[in-house]
Specification:
The structure is a single chain. The protein is globular, with a radius of gyration of 20 Å. Strand 3 and strand 4 form a beta hairpin. The chain is of the alpha+beta class. The chain has a six-stranded antiparallel beta sheet with strand order 1-2-5-6-3-4. It starts with a helix and ends with a strand.
Length: about 150
């Protein structure tokens, strides 16, 4: 009987320790928001928080109409982490905005053609709690994006 109780105690301990490591999206969102606010303060950025949770700074507004999530966009961009590590840089040509990370879908419609925007994207609107190449899980993403054109 003691063997069974010991075995049961071990099983309960193993399962309860696993549940402590589970991902909590609410805690991660709060952590991301605090990290973004600290980055904004440290870098003297005048950013606006979108209702989605994306922070953005319109550097150059551009002219004309605004793209929508269904637009095909052409951009030049640089992506980096909060620690300054650049993880990607390049161009995207005639790609559906709806196919890109949610943070872009919320941020890019704040500028027009010829515009430049700084996006500070919480992890849930980027790659979430999954690592993506050189981007660690739960990473806040920072993008500088130049919208060179779009079509609906």
């Amino acid at each position: 009987m003691k063997k069974y109780l010991l075995l049961l105690a071990v099983i309960v301990t193993v399962f309860s320790s696993c549940s402590k490591d589970s991902f909590d999206p609410t805690k991660q969102a709060a952590k991301d928001d605090a990290a973004i606010q600290a980055y904004i303060a440290a870098n003297n950025i005048n950013a606006t928080k979108d209702p989605s949770g994306v922070y953005y700074q319109v550097i150059t507004p551009g002219t004309g109409a605004y793209p929508t999530v269904s637009s095909l966009i052409t951009v030049n961009y640089t992506g980096k982490l909060l620690n300054g590590t650049v993880f990607d840089s390049g161009s995207i040509n005639s790609t559906a905005l709806s196919s890109l990370v949610k943070g872009w879908q919320y941020g890019i419609p704040h500028i027009n053609t010829g515009g430049r925007i700084l996006l500070l994207i919480p992890s849930a609107l980027g790659y979430g709690n999954t690592a993506q190449g050189s981007i660690p899980a739960n990473s806040v993403l920072i993008f500088t994006v130049d919208l060179t054109g779009f079509s609906n």
